């Protein structure tokens, strides 16, 4: 029996995508996601969504390992969560005499789904499953759903990310320096809030070319520095 | 003989060198840790000689007697020639690199390496708190006809000296200029008088005093008072004023102060001398944003400095918990707040 085990990162949908990708390998695969106080509730939602996913709070991993069958082969995904959580989980595996097979997330620069894999260091590759919008909607909390709807943030299946396109008002070209600054603060606030909710790497911010509104180079620099993509 | 293995990093070299420095320093200072006599520096073809030399200088500055090996690999993720003379061996210590792909590669090598079948390997993980390094000691044995390995892993957190500076963070090429503020023994008399009026007097009295005695622009005058207060704080190790961001000195954003506490937290301080509560509220909302610094966000705090009257008005009229990470202070309690942040109780 194959068990993929790894701590959940704050980019929870990325965690779900990795779980579903491992599980898609066959009936003999299950996934243990290790949660922390910050990720516990979302991991439990994933467990409800797919019974082959088991959410284990980090303090309970040792107990689970003591109960585990001898025929389990562990597969440890390195990448999601903090380094501390990864090494904490790994220590427990080692100290219970398990030597897992290690995996990492392989991404091409374009980061399109069809070019993302779970790869082992022995050249095995598992294509990353696509997370459809309906799946995303079914696992998100009501509050997160309201947030993305209110700010017109959309889920992009190709890149497996939320896309926040800044909405510019019709009179943006008449904005003075202070109004531009206030507008940028508001956009940055929404972007950072989205990153806080869904994970830093799970949200992409975009803006149209700012030259269209006659905005100065500084405004473009500030958006770039905050992590937005978009032309001058 | 113990060896430290370090993966050079292509980005944020200052931080990489800082981690290398503090780890080597820890090995020199800490009882129970072995003496590092050799360093293996791994990097790929994309690294320039200058970038490598920065790492080499950091190593030699700690101990010029350390033997240094450099290993160039096709890509960092594909450390195909990390074997033979360079391969893992007993008593190696590895400073864990940031990318997950490399951590996985290291763990794969530890568990599967033919070079390293028995012995001890240490993993060093500098924590995001900037003050501790966690050491993981791994003991590997290989037994049985199938040669299956067994690994035991033990965690040991160790305190280290703080090596990271705010200057290295602000010197990032995508940032602009800043002014360094030096510590002061006492607040100048003219500022002391201004503080007294800002605490006890009306807005108009403060405004008049600042314009007549400090600066024709009340905003700049108020900033200079705050600067004097900050420069007497014993909890700050670095203070920078008029910090601008934006490549090529275009100054897309300019902030009043960024300071570093003794406990390695960054505080973003904005000064507002105003009698309009709306200005304070808007600024508090802005200060909840994460500033463009490469630094763990958990260790970044914000303070809005204003007059006592406005700080009290803000807290009496606003929901204190709406932006709990932003502290509204006045000239009399700002250093007190810095002390509480530095000592990690940071509440209001």
Written overview of the protein:
The complex is a heterodimer of chains A (232) and B (348). By secondary structure, chain A is an alpha/beta fold. Chain A has two domains: 129 residues, Hypothetical protein VC1899 like domain (Restriction endonuclease-like) (Rossmann fold); 90 residues, no CATH class. The longest helix of chain A has 22 residues. The N and C termini of chain A lie far apart (53 Å). Chain B has 348 residues and is of the alpha/beta class. Chain B has two domains: 158 residues, Rossmann fold, CATH 3.40.50; 177 residues, Restriction Endonuclease. Helices cover 33% and strands 28% of the residues of chain B. Chain B has a seven-stranded mixed beta sheet with strand order 3-2-1-4-5-6-7, sandwiched between helices. A six-stranded mixed beta sheet of chain B has the order 8-9-10-11-12-13, sandwiched between helices. Chain B starts with a strand and ends in a 6-residue tail after the last helix. The mean pLDDT of chain B is 86. Chains A and B meet through α4, β5, α7 and α8 of A and α3, β6, β7 and α8 of B.
Tell me the fraction of residues in β-strands of chain A, as a range.
15-25%
Largest protein interface, residues of each chain: A-B, 34 and 40 residues
Mean pLDDT of chain B: 86
Distance between the termini of chain A: 53 Å
Mean pLDDT of chain A: 91
Write the layout of secondary structure elements.
The complex is a heterodimer of chains A (232) and B (348).
Chain A: E1 2-7, H1 12-23, E2 29-35, H2 40-49, E3 53-57, H3 61-67, E4 73-78, H4 83-95, E5 101-106, E6 117-120, E7 125-127, H5 133-139, H6 142-150, E8 153-156, E9 161-165, H7 177-198, E10 203-206, H8 217-225, E11 228-229
Parallel strand pairs in A: 1-2, 1-4, 2-3, 4-5, 9-10, 10-11
Antiparallel strand pairs in A: 5-6, 6-7, 8-9
Chain B: E1 2-7, H1 13-29, E2 36-44, H2 49-62, E3 67-73, E4 92-95, H3 100-112, E5 119-126, E6 132-143, E7 148-159, H4 166-170, E8 179-181, H5 189-200, H6 203-213, H7 218-231, E9 236-245, E10 253-261, E11 266-271, H8 277-287, E12 300-306, H9 308-317, E13 326-330, H10 334-342
Parallel strand pairs in B: 1-2, 1-4, 2-3, 4-5, 11-12, 12-13
Antiparallel strand pairs in B: 5-6, 6-7, 8-9, 9-10, 10-11
């Amino acid at each position: 029996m194959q068990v993929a085990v790894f701590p959940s990162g704050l980019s929870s949908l990325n965690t779900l995508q990795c779980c579903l990708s491992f599980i898609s390998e066959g009936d003999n695969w299950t996934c243990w996601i290790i949660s922390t106080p910050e990720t516990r509730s979302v991991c439990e939602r994933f467990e409800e969504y797919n019974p082959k996913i088991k959410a284990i709070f980090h303090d309970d991993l040792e107990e689970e390992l003591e109960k585990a069958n001898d025929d389990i082969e562990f597969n440890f995904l390195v990448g999601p969560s903090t380094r501390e959580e990864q090494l904490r989980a790994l220590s427990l595996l080692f100290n219970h005499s398990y030597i897992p097979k290690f995996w990492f997330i392989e991404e091409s620069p374009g980061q399109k789904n069809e070019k993302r894999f779970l790869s082992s260091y022995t050249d095995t590759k598992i294509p990353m499953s696509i997370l459809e919008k309906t799946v995303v909607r079914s696992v998100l909390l009501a509050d997160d759903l309201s947030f993305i709807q209110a700010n017109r943030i959309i889920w992009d299946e190709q890149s497996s990310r939320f896309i926040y396109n800044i909405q510019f008002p019709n009179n943006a070209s008449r904005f003075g320096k202070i109004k531009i600054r206030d507008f940028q603060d508001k956009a940055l606030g929404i972007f950072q809030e989205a990153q806080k909710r869904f994970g830093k790497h799970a949200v992409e911010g975009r803006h149209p070319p700012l030259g269209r509104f006659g905005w100065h180079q500084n405004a473009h620099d500030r958006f770039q520095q905050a992590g937005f993509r978009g032309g001058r | 003989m113990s060896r430290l293995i370090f993966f050079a990093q292509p980005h944020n070299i200052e931080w990489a060198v800082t981690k290398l420095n503090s780890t080597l320093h820890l090995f020199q200072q800490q009882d129970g840790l072995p003496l590092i006599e050799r360093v293996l520096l791994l990097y790929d073809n994309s690294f320039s000689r200058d970038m490598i030399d920065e790492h080499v200088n950091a190593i030699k500055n700690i101990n010029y007697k350390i033997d240094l090996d450099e290993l160039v690999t096709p890509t960092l993720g594909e450390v195909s020639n990390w074997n033979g003379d360079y391969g893992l061996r007993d008593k190696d210590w590895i400073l864990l690199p940031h990318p997950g792909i490399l951590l996985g590669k290291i763990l794969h090598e530890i568990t599967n390496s033919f070079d390293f079948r028995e012995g001890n390997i240490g993993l060093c993980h500098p924590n995001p708190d900037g003050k501790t390094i966690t050491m993981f000691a791994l003991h590997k044995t290989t037994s049985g006809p199938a040669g299956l390995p067994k690994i035991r892993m033990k965690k040991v957190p160790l305190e280290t000296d703080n090596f990271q500076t705010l200057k290295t963070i602000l010197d990032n090429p995508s940032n602009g200029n800043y002014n360094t503020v030096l510590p002061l023994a006492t607040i100048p008399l003219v500022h002391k008088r201004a503080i007294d009026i800002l605490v006890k007097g009306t807005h108009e009295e403060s405004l008049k005093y600042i314009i007549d005695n400090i600066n024709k622009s009340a905003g700049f005058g108020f900033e200079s008072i705050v600067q004097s207060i900050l420069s007497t704080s014993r909890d700050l190790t670095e203070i920078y004023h008029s910090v601008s961001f934006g490549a090529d000195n275009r100054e897309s954003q300019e902030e009043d102060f960024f300071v570093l506490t003794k406990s390695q937290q960054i505080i973003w301080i904005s000064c507002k001398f105003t009698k309009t509560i709306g200005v304070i509220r808007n600024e508090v909302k802005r200060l909840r944003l994460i500033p463009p610094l490469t630094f763990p966000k958990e260790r970044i705090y914000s303070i809005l400095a204003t007059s006592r009257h406005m700080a009290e008005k803000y807290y009496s009229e606003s929901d204190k918990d709406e932006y709990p990470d932003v502290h509204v202070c006045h000239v009399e309690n700002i250093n007190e707040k810095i002390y509480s942040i530095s000592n990690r109780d940071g509440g209001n």
